[in-house]
Design a protein that fits this description.
Elements: E1 6-17, E2 23-30, E3 34-40, E4 49-56, H1 64-73, E5 79-86, E6 110-116, E7 121-123, H2 125-129, E8 166-168, E9 172-184, E10 189-193, E11 203-208
Antiparallel strand pairs: 1-2, 1-11, 2-10, 3-4, 4-5, 6-9, 6-11, 7-8, 9-10
Length: about 220
Amino acid sequence: MTIHGLIAKKVGMTRVLDAEGQMIPVTLLKIEGQKVTKILTPERDGYHGIQVGYYEKPERKLTKPDVARLRKVSVGESFTRFKEFRTEGALEGVNIGSAMNAALFSDVGTVDVTGVTKGHGFEGAITRWGHSSGRRSHGSNFYRLPGSLGMRTTPGRVFKNKEVPGHMGCVQVTVQNLKVVDVDVEANVIALKGSVPGFRNGFVIIKPSVKAKELKK
């Protein structure tokens, strides 16, 4: 089966030892039940690809459109979420109902992970953008404040993209070239070096690196 991508649940972080005894921080991603629910073709959809269903729930909790299309393809599970993966051409050995698991990434060196970052609510400029704080000496009135935002008569406005306080987090981020440290096929778990975006038990998308670099030995 050609590798295209998987949906994984972020379990958390731990650390492992490599062959040289070095401690490596890793993030564990669990590949839970997911199957191909649709094959996309240029004649019907305009491009090649597949649709993967995941996050199973009782059928009584599904919407009527989801129940209808799942019954039509007879995959056997009641999925509530779906994700499309585009491909370069028609995939061989991939059919509706094909199960996806961690074994697909057994021979992959690096991956790109896409997820939604943790939400922090409303934050000041120091926390949100990493600005330096003001003096903490006696009489200081600008401690943890963003400073002056105003302009002179020309242009007489605040420029776009000015780093000011506001909502922080809850944005989609892709981290590239994460090294695959280990793939446990039996447990359906993939260990990646470093951290990935998102909160514990949140879903992320794993794909082979589009800008794969040669790993250092």
